Amino acid sequence: MRNRMTRFVAAATLAVLATSLIGSAASAAPKTRWVDDDGKAGPNGCNGGATASKTIQGAINAAGPGDTIQVCPGTYEEMLRIRGNRKGLTVKSVQPWKAIIRTPKQMPRPYFFAALITIDKVDDVTIQGFRTKVRTRGTCDDIDFLVAAAASQGTVIRGNRFLTDLTPDADCGVRVGVIHGDRAFDGSARRSSATISNNIIRDTVEEGVVAFSEAGRQVRTRVHDNSIRAYGACTCLPAAAASRARSAWGPARPRVSGLGTVGVSGVSMDGIGVLVDGAVSGKIDQNVIQGAPGGLETGASWGAGILVTPSYAPAAAGVAPADRLVIAGNLIRRAWGGILIDGGDGVQVRANTIRTVLIGLAVVDLVNSVIRNNTVQAKGAGILVLGEDNRFTRNTVTGAGGICIDDSSGSGTEGTANTWTHNTASQGSSPEGICQTPRR
Fold first, then answer.
1. Which residues contact 264 (CB under 8 A, 6 or more apart)?
2. Across-strand partners of 391?
3. Helix, strand, or coil (residue 100)
4. Using CA atoms, how far apart are residues 363 and 344, in angstroms rounded to an integer?
5. Is the Cα torsion angle 288, 337, 248, 103 positive or negative in sign?
6. pTM of this structure
């Protein structure tokens, strides 16, 4: 009996010790890890003498939840993958834009596409203050995404300079700047949320920023205070790479079939500033979005400043349109279309300035939404509408295409299905009365 009791006490003691050790490991304080290309940095700065990782990926592999990785100035030729138990990881440049991430000569494609930075089902990751460098001539870099966050919540992409040096005669280009969505790289689905702010995103072939809900999970996006330029005239992205990326992950090539009902169809949708695809809520505000220099005058026109659509995710059947999305305070210029919305409910479009575009603001299948205080200068048409139960208030349309057109019918203003109050258009409206023509 005594031996049994002794063994019991010993076993209980070991169990308590094991539990204590596990709890201690789980509650370990987050660490600050340093990266410098000379292998020496920290603990107080880049001039320190402590041993540091020479690569950012090496520090990521060693990191745990809540860790911060401080990257010293230098050029790092590598592709970054963040996955596993690293919730709350922050990866930042010590000095803004002095740490450069450059595509390596050999680019692995673990997910059948190439992304400079991937975040795979890891929540609360922050990427801050980096500059990217991508070769677009000669032996150039076949890159699909600069940053791809898959099925991750609380992602923050802030204060980076995503530059690609793209021109119409380039040999290759980057398809998308920053993309996040609810489909993980392994095909599973999970909620996604991201804040993309204060970045400079230059000269992507297709989209600057993409938020998509392919699987119908909740996706929330906040895109604000970015400077985005999309170069839609370039056709330099290799067709094989583009096809591979689209079939593997993310939205397919944009279509605007629904918008054809108001005359917006048959347009190449390359060169979109911000693309919202599927059941996405959130806010897109205070961004400067523009096409290539020269814009419409040189034929270097591009798709749209902001495009909202539920129509072309690979599993689009049954995917709801944008819900409770706010588009506010953006400056959009040199685009084929300013803001194009192909489906949505409860969307607010307010206080945007749209200049040097063919079509200013086009909406189809939009319901219960408010469009107010927008200023549009267009060459083709200012506002085109086919939706119902929406309110258009205090919008101003000017230019050679300064006209408002509402093709809906109902018991609203002038026989439309919408309410129009205090709007003005320099070239009139159809039906007459939805927008007033200022006296000359």
1. 256, 337, 340, 359, 362, 384
2. 370, 419
3. strand
4. 9
5. negative
6. 0.87
- Could you tell me which CATH class the domain 73-430 is placed in? mainly beta
Query: What average pLDDT does the segment 317-339 reach?
Result: 82
Angstrom distance (rounded) from CA 12 to CA 386 = 72
Instruction: Note whether 249 and 314 are within 8 A (CB).
Output: no
Compute φ and ψ for 308, nearest 5 degrees. -115, 125
d(CA 349, CA 285): 10
Res. 80: pLDDT tops 90: yes
Are 365 and 387 within 8 A, CB to CB? Answer: yes
Count other C-beta atoms under 10 Å from residue 398's C-beta: 18
In what helix (H) or strand (E) does residue 54 lie, and over which residues does it extend?
Answer: none
Q: How confident is the model at residue 251 (pLDDT cuts 50, 70, 90)?
A: low
- What SS3 state is found at 218? coil
Spatial distance between the Cα atoms of 99 and 97, rounded to a whole number of angstroms: 6
User: To the nearest 10°, the Cα dihedral for 111, 117, 323, 231?
Assistant: -100
202 contacts 176 by C-beta, under 8 angstroms: no
**Degrees to nearest 5, angle at CA 21 with 17 and 22:** 120
Give mean pLDDT, residues 68-77.
97
Structure tokens at 238: 């290799």
Q: What is the distance, to the nearest Å, from the Cα of residue 300 to the centroid of all Cα atoms in its chain?
A: 23
Asked whether 363 and 341 are in contact (CB, 8 A), the reply is yes
Q: Where are the beta strands (DSSP E) in 167-287?
A: 174-181, 192-197, 200-204, 207-212, 219-224, 227-230, 272-277, 280-285
